[in-house]
Write a structure and sequence with these properties.
By secondary structure, the chain is of the alpha/beta class. It is 20% helix and 20% strand.
Length: 322
């Protein structure tokens, strides 16, 4: 759950290759995205059934994110899996790709996002994304869905839904990552990611991407100490308003040029009648808690962030959400 800096990983030698095509449904976008999952030597502890579950859940998570995007040709995303002793799971794109300059800093895009957007694999045969999973978490906390595409079987009340975890981790590789300080939100002096650039450092740091602000109603707060995620504490964090019209982000000279942020509407939480599902704490990409027995999925706020980091959305999803 804790994102790693996107450029901090080195390729690891020696792996077994497993192939999963994330292309088994009809969506024109996802039909062109193949996900290849490989395991390094740390995964030798796994049995074949466990590997199959990791492959199927990784591919389905990549399919669910990539089907939102307008993709103009075949893509192949290589994911390298390691098994660790960490408490949960973590993931990141392999590298950050310079795509321009914004406000005096080099702007870097996650390598998975870059390849999905452009069709160019920025690091050749090396993996595009690294995924680490704690062994105890894998075996004693996660519940692997017998049909990760359908997601209809009841999630055991004492288990964490593995599809939710895999969706969360792929979300880091696609959009939710960067180099800003995890607590202060302050970026390095010379560079930042397409996500970092929208942070308003503070306590908490806020996310000011125009589409996210429009989707949420106010600038949503990022988790202090873990700020490539949403939310703090367990209270309802912010009111939100109805989904607003899509605001396309244009690319000029290699740089995502955002629309102007609308002024957040003035809303009283007591008047707005906020429902539990409107809490940042219940977002897939929240940084506070994953409730057992509960399914999380990509939300309209996540779609807004995809726009804010410069990804082109499929017309099917341009004005709403399925
Ligand atoms: Ca690739
Ligand atoms: Ca690659
Ligand atoms: Zn996370």
């Amino acid at each position: 759950m804790i994102p790693k800096p996107a450029n901090a990983r080195a390729p690891r030698p020696g792996c077994q290759r497993w192939l999963a095509l994330g292309a088994f449904l009809a969506s024109s976008a996802s039909a062109q995205v193949a996900t290849q999952v490989t395991f390094d030597a740390s995964a030798n502890v796994l049995d074949p059934a466990e590997r199959d579950e990791i492959v199927s859940h990784t591919a389905e998570a990549m399919r669910r994110w990539s089907r939102l995007l307008a993709i103009d040709g075949p893509r192949s995303i290589e994911v390298r899996v390691s098994i660790t002793d960490q408490a949960t799971a973590s993931a990141a794109s392999a590298v950050g790709i310079p795509v321009g300059e914004a406000e005096g800093r080099q702007l870097l895009e996650q390598s998975v996002a870059y390849e999905l957007r452009t069709g160019v694999d920025p690091n050749g045969a090396d993996p595009d994304m690294y995924l680490q999973i704690g062994l105890d978490y894998l075996r004693n906390t996660l519940w692997f869905d017998p049909d990760p595409g359908a997601r209809s079987a009841p999630v055991p009340s004492n288990r964490t839904d593995a599809m939710s975890t895999f969706l969360h981790e792929v979300g880091h590789a696609v959009a939710y990552n960067g180099w800003s300080d995890a607590t202060t939100g302050i970026p390095p002096a010379t560079l930042w990611s397409t996500f970092d650039r929208w942070m308003i450092p503070g306590s908490p740091t806020l996310f000011s991407g125009a589409n996210a602000v429009a989707a949420w109603g106010v600038a949503p707060d990022l988790t202090t100490g873990n700020n490539k995620h949403w939310g703090n504490g367990t209270a309802i964090a912010a009111p939100r308003v109805e989904w607003q019209p899509a605001r396309p982000v244009e690319w000029r000279n290699g740089l995502a040029v955002p629309p102007l942020a609308p002024a957040p509407p003035s809303m009283s939480p007591a008047v707005a009648g906020i429902a539990a599902q409107d809490s940042l704490i219940l977002q897939l990409m929240n940084g506070v808690v994953f409730y057992s027995g509960h399914r999380y999925d990509i939300s309209p706020l996540d779609v807004a962030v995809l726009r804010d980091v410069g990804l082109p959305l499929d017309a099917l999803f341009a004005n709403g959400f399925d």
